[in-house]
Amino acid sequence: MPKRDGRTDARGGFGTWRSVAATAAAALMLASAAIRSEAGDRPAPKSAGSERASPGSVNFLDPLLQEAWKEAGLKPPQVARDDEFLRRAYLDVLGRIPTVAEARAFLASREPDKRAALVDALLDHVDFPKNFATEWTNLLIGRGRQERNVDRDALTAWLRKQFAAGRPWNEVVYDLVTASGSNKENGAVNFTLAHLEAEAVPLTSRTTRLFLGQQLQCVQCHDHPQNDWKQADFWGVNAFFRGLKAEEKRAVDAAGVEKFDHMELSDAPTDAFARFDRRNGMMGVAFPKFIDGRKIEKPDGVVRRVELAKFITDPESDLLPRAMVNRTWAHFLGRGFVNPVDDIGPHNQPALPEVFDKLTEEFREGGCDVKQLVRWITSSAAYQASSLRPGKSRPEDDLFSAMALRPMSPEQLFDSLLTATAAHRAGSGRDDAKREAWMRQFLFAFGNDEGDEATSFQGTIPQSLMMMNGDLMRDALSGKPGSFLADALDQAGRQRRSPASFMVDQLHLAALSRFPTASERNASVRYLESYPDALPYLQDLFWALLNSNEFILIH
Q1: Can you give the pTM of this predicted structure?
Q2: Residue extents of the structural domains in the chain
Q3: Which residues of the chain have pLDDT under 70?
Q4: Is 244 strand, coil or helix?
Q5: What is the distance between the alpha carbons of residues 375 and 386, in angstroms, rounded to a whole number?
């Protein structure tokens, strides 16, 4: 619970400060109510076979999904309520929860196609390219990249422009693989620069995993035991990165001091080949060869990365579309058709193969349009399903007939806390330095011998304490001018109906994107109307909601 010193900067229209001791038990009781089973005293969602089966637009995926669920003996999924869908869509598309005004507007709408309309509006929102650029920056270079030769901000800005412009995914990937020049002026260059060490082994691994969905690094040292991948396949792709040259460029600053300015990346035709140690102790060599066996006719007379990019983005191949569809499906549904998402191959059979194949086909033939892919996924019965599971079914058993529960990413949590509380207006600020400090406290990063990065966000004790008592939470509950609580208290004093009821609604909409249930509202209003001093109780209730499982989970 946040500490208080008996003073406040804001006073509500229906109360002032009082002792926190009288409210702590009540706030915790309501927090328990907020995170209880969502069946509660709200009507249960109807199934996908009922009259509300298609709250969004029906697309080509639903018949395939329905058939797969029927064959597996699964009941049609329950449809998520509007407030569930609203919060889920905002987090997945924009990377944050909706504001109170956004939540009220959507929940009040009675338009039959409002879910599809919401997704369209989110895809046109300025936060969509920002969110996807952040996610793909993390995928391309990791969260912890601070080396001098990698300009993270330039890469993020470049990606943001691509998503904002709606460029086809194959074109974006082509530019990432072939980018050259200044890493400050061309942000795409930073992907290659980030992984050039160890004869570009990390770059080979990252390229095949992200853009082809295949963990080719598994055969770096030996042939694959479960499929036809050979050691030479990894080094054949690695040979495409021969001929690369990275140079430091220096400039004189205003004080006349020469210092590092940026990196320049260039390609030169080469006849170099990759050398690797075979398991039998012999030395192997590999010239450029793509994973499907295609080769460059004259490898010493071309820019090899350009040829590799042509193979990756070949419009007749489904490797790139398949990898992107699987990863995007995992982003929205919590797990991919194939898991891990970058381990597609004959050794790892997908769930719902007909759905996977059809979505890949449509994405490829539709020009690799990322926004259209998002529309298809979010309008499907799988995405519109409730997170409530019948019986004791497990996620791997339900074939996406229930939404998987997943924690917010650190970025989503940070931005959602600011959205809910307006803490940046009350003192915390929304600058990059504070955001990075937040990330460091919520992440544990470690490298491996491929130069990869793994992270965990597991709700450790230090993470929980920072959520409960950190600077961001302190400013959120301060009641300072500009904060959410200060504004809400001011609005409550001007309400014709019960100010207490209005405040309880505002807190639930801000934190959970839903109105309180009848029992939640009645209990809170009863406490608020029983005491002349309301703010401490509201602070405790808001604190409890923001630290509940219902807030931190995407469901």
Answers
A1: 0.86
A2: 146-155+177-312
A3: 1-58, 145-146, 219-229, 279-281, 390-397, 423-466, 532
A4: strand
A5: 18
